Each structure stands twice: as C-alpha cells, then as structure tokens.
C-alpha cells in the first residue's frame, strides 16, 4: 500500500506518463528470463500502441498475448537525512526520492502493415503533427517493413511520487537547495519536482495512543 502523501491520482499518473513520453516495456520469456526495451507510447482508446525494430529480439519472444508492464520514471536521487530536523542524540535514515508510474496489461504483437503504419504516424503526430502530415508514403512503406507493431491493454496503473511530501516545509527547502547546489540535470529536476509537490507533513508530531493516555 502506498502512503497517502505519496499516492498519485489517475490524472496525475497519466500526466507523468505523457510527460515522460516513453517507458521501459518489461516482459518475461517462457523460461523466466526478462526482456526490457525503452519505447515511446501512444494511447488509442483503452490501449497503448507501440513499435520496435525488427532487429530487436524482444518481440520475437512474444509468441502469444503476454503479461507486460511499462515503467515510466521521473527524476530521482539521494536525499540526505542531514536536511531533516532531528532531536540531538537521535538519528534518521536517508532516503531516495523519485516519481514512477507502472502500467500493467497484456501485450500482443501486431504485424499488420496498416497497424504498424498507424503506430508510426500516431507517434510522430504526438510530437510533430506537421511532420506526420507531410511524411512521404514511399518512406512509410519502407519503414513499416523494418518495424514491428505492438498493442498493450491498460489493465491497471500504479503511481507513486515520493518527493518528501511528509517532511516539514523548512526541511523540504533544505533538501531542494542541496539538490540545486549539486547542479546535475537529474538533481535540478528532482529539486523542481520536490518544490512543486504539496507538503503534507504533520505540523504537530503524532503521539498516537500516548496522547490519549496523557489526556486521561
């Protein structure tokens, strides 16, 4: 179960997927070994359209409708517990902040030329509509022979944004500042995600049953 302060609602999950644009497609072979390929995605109705190169051995292992997961991961990084407000003499573990969405479904290989052509055009249109409209038909015919189409159902979506929402505002400010000082693309992106995420920290420490006993 995902803690409520890290859980994403359905709209937030889809926002992560669309922002990432591509995810790791993961499937298991009959012998239990795993294949994984980073692929861009296009949604059509309640399915995902995908395509990959025929040179990729991954699709050859999918001989029938197969359980699959697509993993979309945002910025992530180490968060040092030194940024937390901790009583003298006590210690708290550091952690790793991240955003990740997983789509679970059933994957099917679709080699029909019309489907492959549609998948190529739909993906291109997702990022450059003008190019999709002007794409040469002869090029498309050649490209579709070198590409395999894939279709995946969307059966379940899981999402988690662990961005220090459970920490106090001053702690979150220190975490973001430390990440910005690191200066890497990943650290800067994570700092921005942490600053954008709503703070859901308790302003008064939770005493649980102890509080009730004191009151009595």
Structural Rg: 22 Å
Give the overall average pLDDT. Answer: 90
Largest sheet: 8 strands, antiparallel
Number of E strands: 8
At CATH level 3, the topology is Pnp Oxidase, Chain A
N-end to C-end Cα span: 33 Å
What is the CATH C-level name?
Mainly Beta
Count of helical regions? 7
Concise account of the structure shown:
The chain is an alpha+beta fold and 216 residues long. 34% of the residues lie in helices and 31% in strands.
General description of the model:
By secondary structure, the chain is α+β, with helices and mostly antiparallel strands. It has a single domain, classed as Pnp Oxidase, Chain A. It contains 7 helices and 8 strands. Strands 1, 2, 3, 4, 5, 6, 7 and 8 form an 8-stranded antiparallel β-sheet that branches. α2 crosses α4 (137-145) and α5 packs antiparallel against α6 (185-196). The chain is elongated, with a radius of gyration of 22 Å. The model is unreliable at 204-216 (pLDDT under 50).
Give structural attributes.
8 strands, 216 residues, Pnp Oxidase, Chain A
Q: Layout of helices and strands, plus pairs?
A:
Layout: H1 10-20, E1 22-28, E2 34-40, E3 42-44, E4 47-53, E5 66-79, E6 95-110, H2 113-127, H3 129-134, H4 137-145, E7 147-153, E8 156-162, H5 169-182, H6 185-196, H7 209-215
Antiparallel strand pairs: 1-2, 1-5, 3-4, 4-7, 5-6, 6-7, 6-8
């Amino acid at each position: 179960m995902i803690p409520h302060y890290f859980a994403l609602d359905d709209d937030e999950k889809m926002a992560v997927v669309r922002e990432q644009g591509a995810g790791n497609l993961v499937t298991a072979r009959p012998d239990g070994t795993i294949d994984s390929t980073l692929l861009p995605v296009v949604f059509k109705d309640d399915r995902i359209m995908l395509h990959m190169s025929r040179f990729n051995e991954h699709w050859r292992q999918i001989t029938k409708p197969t359980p699959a997961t697509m993993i979309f991961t945002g910025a992530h990084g180490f968060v040092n517990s030194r940024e937390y407000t901790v009583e003298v003499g006590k210690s708290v573990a550091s952690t790793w902040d991240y955003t990740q969405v997983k789509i679970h479904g059933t994957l099917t290989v679709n080699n029909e030329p019309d489907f492959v052509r549609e998948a190529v055009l739909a993906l291109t249109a997702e990022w450059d509509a003008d190019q999709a409209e002007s794409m040469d038909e002869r090029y498309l015919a050649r490209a579709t022979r070198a590409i395999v189409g894939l279709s995946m159902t969307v059966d379940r979506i899981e999402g988690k944004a662990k961005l220090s929402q459970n920490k106090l505002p001053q702690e979150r400010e220190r975490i973001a500042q430390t990440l910005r000082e690191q200066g890497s693309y990943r650290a800067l992106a994570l700092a921005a995600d942490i600053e954008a995420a709503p703070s859901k920290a308790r302003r008064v420490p939770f005493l649980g049953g102890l509080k009730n006993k004191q009151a009595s």
